[in-house]
Amino acid sequence: MTGASRGIGRGIAAVLAREGYDLCISYRSEAGEAQAVQEELQAACGVKCHVVQASLEDPAVPAQFARRAIELLGHVDLLVNNAGVTRKGAAHELQDAVLDHLINLNFRAYIVLMREVSAHMAAAGIRGNIVHITSSRGQRAYPGDGIYGGLKAAVHRAAQSAALDLAPFGIRVNCVAPGATRVRFGPATDEASDILGRRIPLGRLGLPEDVGHAVAYLASDRASYITGEVLRVDGGLILPGMPERRDYPGSWT
Questions:
Q1: Secondary element (H or E) of residue 198
Q2: How far apart are CA 20 and CA 121, in angstroms?
Q3: How many helices (H) and strands (E) does the chain have?
Q4: What is the CATH number of domain 60-233?
Q5: What is the pLDDT of residues 55-111, one digit of tens each?
């Protein structure tokens, strides 16, 4: 899986390790955090956890990481595309560098990794799973998120066609779309998290492990008849059309 050294990715990795998965996780720059995840999961869960540095915004790197993961693990039966970055900006102020970075990391890397891993699964006769981590912003528009949210929506749509392409091989493709998720802890973030959490219908922010449980479910036999779907994990955040910005007109309270 990609982007597992912190935040949502770390929560997903922890849940999958508890489910007994051996892992190969990528990180971009924080080697210490990735190594801490590796040591924690191997000690607590008795699984193998390989760590590979991969700057997935580089067009050459996603395929390289896929091949390295297959080499280290021997085979791959679950791909979790999680690595990504949030960048916001008004449509009339968008910079080329930001656009290229978002397209390469948040969309192209997902598609290339899916291509490489699904080809491996098909050739090996593995009835595997691919799960893309996207966002509720792929289903609800907010000011300033046209490119970020648009690319998440593009992943949703690409997953549907991929699900059709790969169904004959027994490979399922789904998306998990988190909403507001608490990925940092401490006094500096508690107050802001609590304010937003109280405005979500279920009364709290999501946790990384909430996303991990959704991934584990979709990859399990319990979801063996589900493909091409988006499972939103947002506590009901977007049901009333609630903007995440407190100062936006029409905010849900």
A1: helix 187-199
A2: 19
A3: 8, 6
A4: 3.40.50.720
A5: 999 999 999 999 999 999 999 999 999 999 999 999 999 999 999 999 999 999 999
